[in-house]
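Progress report, Aim 2. The chain analyzed during this reporting quarter is listed below.
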Amino acid sequence: MSMMRAVLATGPPARALRMGERPIPLPLRPGELLVRVKAVALNPTDWRNIPLAQEGCGIGCDFAGVVEERGPQLRGTAPAQGDRVAGFVHGNLYKHQGAFAEYVRTPADLVWSVPPNVPFTAAASIGGIGGSTAAQVVFMKLGLPMPKPGVHTGSESTSGPKPGFVVWSGASSVGQYASQLARLAGHNVLVTASPENFDYLKSLGVSAVFDYRDPDAPAQIRATAEREGGPGVVCGLDAVSAEGSTLKAIETFGPRGGHLITLLPVNVTGARQDVKVESTVVYTVLGDAFRLWNKQFDANVADREAISRWYRVCGELVGKGDLRPNRLRVLPGGLPGIEAGLELLKSGTLSAEKVVLEI
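Predicted structure tokens for the chain:
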């Protein structure tokens, strides 16, 4: 049995990480790919779920790399051996899975083709949890139109006043991607952030940025959106997903109300009834059943089909610069450097940056 290096969970009682080895995930099942990992991106979920992982579980979700082998029953449209791809897996849950390794096994319909002008580090930051969550929020939960291959969307295809889309925490990884996707879908995007990130977020195409610390920010967002002549804010994302941030995001909505997505379940009892608040979990797009937050999630075929459609257009948008990656903080050290990267994430000192490592 061939082995590979990987970052593994120690399990109880330490509930930490260790460098180790586990079998290369072969043989492949029908429809699967074996990807040689070239870069990984780090997410808060990677360190938050370490205490839940059993001994020997693979860690990490986001990866980009090169197709090493193809499983049986793959059609010609699937990535070929040697193709550059990116995606994510459900890390911290299985002993045979986890992106923080030399190889990862993935269904062929759950990766996207990385253009040659896009570095693996950038691809890992896009095609992992951050970009996939944004696609789930914008296209699946809120129902905005998904771009089609070869078809440009956004402001150039939308005439008249645009509906408003709010992102609370626009500088977060998911916030940056959701802002860009909402703009591509023809919405007027208004976000909150720290002042030092205002110019950067405007470079991504958002219409206006507001200081999240300003107590008047919700009223300012609402007034700005309604001055555009449209219906004001009608949908959006709270990328912080705490009670206080969600209540503030709700205050930005126009007179017709709308639909707000959170990344964690939030109690908003007593808030406006004309704003629907709904949480989302990105792992449903992988199409497998799982358990999280003491709740059982059934296999979701519709979400998997939707993310597969998104992946078919994602690479084109990235290659043309219509969807830009997060600003990257590239750390040294390869797989052994991941633990330091997770500690950096936990420190809370990063702002508008995504931690990535080359493997």
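The radius of gyration is 20 Å. The CA atoms of residues 129 and 171 lie 15 Å apart. These observations will guide the mutagenesis work planned for the next reporting period.
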